[in-house]
Structure formats: C-alpha cells, structure tokens
Automatic annotation (TrEMBL):
Residues 10-293 form the Microcystin LR degradation protein MlrC N-terminal domain. It comes from Gleimia coleocanis DSM 15436. This is MlrC domain protein. The lineage of its organism: Bacteria, Bacillati, Actinomycetota, Actinomycetes, Actinomycetales. InterPro entries: MlrC, MlrC_C, MlrC_N. Residues 302-479 form the Microcystin LR degradation protein MlrC C-terminal domain. It comes from the Bacteria.
Length: 507
C-alpha cells in the first residue's frame, strides 16, 4: 500500500447571500450586508480546524450576507461582482485553482437581473474554466436555474425549514468538495428536475407533511451506493422570475440513465403531493383573527405574515397596526397586545428625544412600503428604549388615548426599531422589557413561528395580511413565472398532463 501523495488543493470561497422580495418597494444597499474578506470570511466556518478542512488551502475572496430584504441596488451588486471576479482571476493566475465554494442563498434579486446567482457563477466559470470543481450551498427557498446548475458540480441545500441545519449544509458542501479533490474523483454526474410548484415556506415547513415525508427521502437516496448528495429546493415565491419553482438535483457516481431515473422518481413523488401542501397554522383575514383573538387562549399569537422581514418584507407595513389602533379590546385597555415590530428610524429618534416615561406624537411605519395603508399617527408614552446586539436602537411605545380630557394608557405596545429586525426569539422581547408569555395577544411580523415563540404559544393564527411577501400568492400577480404552475393553475386536466423532464450531465 502506497500512502497518498500530499498536495494541497486550492479552493476559492465567495458568494453573496440574500433573499429578496421583488414585490416590495425597498432596495438592499451595502449597509444591509455583513461583508467579510480574508480571515474574517473563513472564520464563518467553525469546522476550519477539522482535519479534512486543514488539508485544503481555502482562499477567501468576498462574502456578503444580509437578512432577507429587497432587491439589491445594481451598483452595489456590480461592485461586489467586480471584486469577486478580479479576486478569483488573481488567485487562478497565481496558481490554477482546484475548486471553488459558492456560498449563496439562491433567491437573490438584483435590479435588472432575472437570475443573479446564475449570472455570477457563469461569469466565474469564464475565468476558471470548466475543470475546476465548484461546490454550491444554498437555502432551500432558493431557486435552481439551469445556469446555476450548469455552473456547479456539487449542489446542496438546507434540508430543514426552519433552517436549523444551515451551518451543517455549508459544512457538507465544503466537506464533499474537499473529499472529491483529495481523492481525485473529480466531478460526479448530476441530474436536475424542475417541478411546477411554487409555494410559500409557510406551506412547506419540514416539521409537517408533506414536506416532512418528501425531505425524509434524502437519507435513503444518499445511502445508495454512488450517491453524493440529494437536494430539494422549494423555490422562492416572492420573486417574479422564470427560475422560481421547485427543483431536485441528485449528484452521484452512477451511470447517467440510472441517476436520471432516480431523480425523476423523487421529483414525481413531490409533484404527486401537490394537493397536500397546506398552511402550517390556521389562516384568516386580520379582521377575523382579531375577533377570534378576543376569546382565544393566552398568549395568543397572530402572524402578520404578508410583511415578514424574514422572507423579505419591508418590515414597516402598517396594515396590522392600523387594525390594532381600531381594536376596542386593546384600545380600551382590557387586553394587553404587543405589536412587533416596525422598522422606523424616525420614530426611534423621536422616542429617544422624548425620553422614557414621556408622551409624544408619532407617525409610525409606512415609510418604506407606504401601501396598506401607510404611516399611522398615534400618541404614545415611551416605555422602554434598548439596544440590540447589532447596535440598533429600539423603542416600546405604549399607545395612549384621551378619555374625558385625560390621557390614559391603552393596552397596546408598539415596537419601533432603527434597523430591520425580527422578533423571533424570547431574548429579543426581553431586551425591551417585554415578556410575550405575559401578554394577551402578540402580533408579530413572521410567517411560521420560530422555535421560541412556537414553544410558548397557546393559540396561533396566521393573518393573510398584504405586503411584499403576501401568503396569498395569487394576489401578487406574477407575470414571468412558467405556466402551468401550482397554485396559479388548478385545472386538474392541465396538471395531470404535466410531464417532468430531467437535465442530466454525465461525468
Ligand atoms: Zn429559507
């Protein structure tokens, strides 16, 4: 037995990661992102010290990552692309690269582009050529375009929604890349099948059927001899682009026909489940949710789902707030309601100038997304001002009203934040002196409840509120997606006639 030769594969690392709603008027700018280069970029990977990882020369280029939000302002994107391409070019010229780790979301939108990730990997390929092994990691709410598929050799995505396995997915993408390079196995074969389904994450959580069952096929597929990875993208519903749809990709060291049959079989299983996808919680209009909440169990949660910043909502739509300001049970002080949260730096500034314990007039929200129905005037006592770990200031406003010439507190707390924020964890509330477990009703800009909130809720409904990430997809009026597409087309005859096709590339 001869010991393997010691050589150090050279692997570039780059990517831009954001989930963008194209139905929201907001844009994403550089300040919305955390940009890392050099060692800071590599420090994102906690497995750097593992032996397999140490055998690779990871070469950081640029990585930019933001919370879900709007479409990226074009000059910001162009500058990062130029930096990535120049960086990759310089590394490749210095000594040819062996691999590249492409760390993206898959639902990034950029002004004027319909497939930003596909365009970027195509441009990178023009520099590194066809032989360098490219490994891709994405969010399962990303889209698998043909360009992205063509540009990558190893393709994987998260397998859990909520995304408890986000880091594990990146590690898998890097590990598989390292192993293929060190073993000299080179590129596996790959097969892609698109499925004409476009659904919100709130119908496709892997905690419930049918997604739970469809994703649980992955360990069986991966246990088959020769299979490297099996990946299933739900796709991203809140962008209007031809690439937006579900997809599966299987990568394997298998004969092309065998791999293709395997991939088509899995895709067909998903397609056959098309009528099973339901919302993770009961849904209703905001009006009906409030009426129901009067007698529901406490704490009662209402998801203001159409403006969920976690999916790309503007985070300042006032539809829910407007309804709360007209909801007698809380305005009379009978019920304590927490309304979290509106991205509104101006109102935070007014709160800071007013000071805790004092009353002032505010015009809250509707400054980014002024539809439905726009800024809300209210008078409130500043009851708390706090900073979050990202350095953004937030304020709790207890709405007051005048009764017989005297200002009295209502039961409504409205939280305004200087930066985009989501109240998905108990600690985020506690930093502002709020305890959702003690409240009667919590109206939160979110879709499915994140683990902390899920654990404490006694009753929960999802309000189908309008906004950039409206759960009622039909209302959004997509123009560019392929048809037929579930749920936009529902004629059973048309859907039954759909045939799935595989795009398969051999070794
Ligand atoms: Zn996601």
């Amino acid at each position: 037995m001869v010991l393997p030769k010691i050589w150090r594969p050279r692997v570039a690392v780059c990517g831009i990661h954001i989930e963008s709603s194209t139905f929201s008027p907001q844009l994403a700018y550089e300040h919305d992102f955390t940009v890392t280069r050099g060692e800071a970029l590599l420090n994102r990977f906690s497995w750097r010290e593992e032996t397999w990882s140490q055998a690779i020369d990871w070469l950081p280029v640029l990585h930019a990552r933001a919370l879900p939000g709007g479409v990226i302002h074009r000059p910001v994107f162009d500058a990062w692309v130029a930096e990535i391409l120049e960086g990759v070019k310089a590394l490749h010229a210095e000594k040819p690269l062996d691999g590249l780790f492409f760390d993206v979301h898959g639902a990034m939108s950029v002004e004027g582009l319909l497939d930003a990730e596909g365009d970027l990997i195509t441009a990178i390929r023009e520099i590194i050529g066809p032989d360098v092994l490219v490994s891709l990691s994405t969010d399962l709410h990303g889209n698998m375009s043909e360009a992205l598929f063509n540009g990558c050799d190893l393709l994987t995505t998260y397998r859990m929604a909520p995304h408890e396995d986000a880091l594990e997915s990146r590690r898998r993408a890097m590990y598989n890349l390292a192993m293929r390079l060190l073993s000299g196995q080179g590129k596996p074969a790959k097969s892609l099948v698109h499925i004409p389904i476009l659904l919100p994450g709130e119908k496709t959580s892997t905690r419930i059927e049918p997604a739970k069952r469809l994703y649980s096929r992955i360990p069986y597929l991966e246990a088959l001899p020769g299979v490297v990875d099996a990946a299933f993208w739900i796709g991203f519903a809140w962008a209007d682009q031809p690439r937006c749809k579900a997809a599966v990709v299987v990568t394997a060291d298998l004969p092309q026909e065998e791999l293709e049959a395997l991939t088509l079989d899995w895709a067909q299983e998903i397609w056959d489940a098309r009528d099973e996808f339901e919302f993770v919680a009961p849904v209703d209009s905001m009006e009906n949710c409030l009426q129901w909440a009067e007698t529901a169990q406490r704490p009662t949660f209402i998801s203001d789902s159409g403006d969920n910043p976690g999916a790309g909502g503007a985070n300042d739509v006032t539809y829910a707030l407007h309804h709360l300001l007209n909801w007698e049970p809380t305005m009379s002080g009978k019920l304590h309601t927490i309304c979290v949260s509106l991205h509104d730096a101006e109102s935070v500034a007014v709160a800071v100038a007013t000071g805790v314990g004092n009353i002032a007039d505010f015009v809250v929200g509707g400054k980014i997304d002024s539809r439905w129905p726009g800024p809300q005037s209210l008078r409130a006592k500043v009851s708390f001002i706090g900073d979050d770990p990202l350095g953004s200031t937030s304020a709790v406003l207890r709405v007051v009203r005048t009764v017989d010439g005297v200002e009295v507190e209502t039961g409504l707390d409205v939280v305004v934040t200087k930066g985009r924020n989501q109240f998905g964890a108990l600690a985020t509330f506690q930093r502002l002196g709020l305890d959702p477990r003690e409240a009667d009703v919590v109206v939160v800009k979110i879709g499915y409840l994140e683990p902390d909130l899920y654990a404490m809720h006694k009753d929960w409904k999802m309000a189908l509120t309008p906004g950039g990430v409206d759960q009622d997809l039909i209302r959004l009026d997509h123009k560019l997606i392929n048809r037929p597409m579930v749920p936009f087309d529902c004629d059973p005859e048309v859907l039954d006639a759909v045939e799935l096709h595989a795009i398969t590339v051999g070794r």
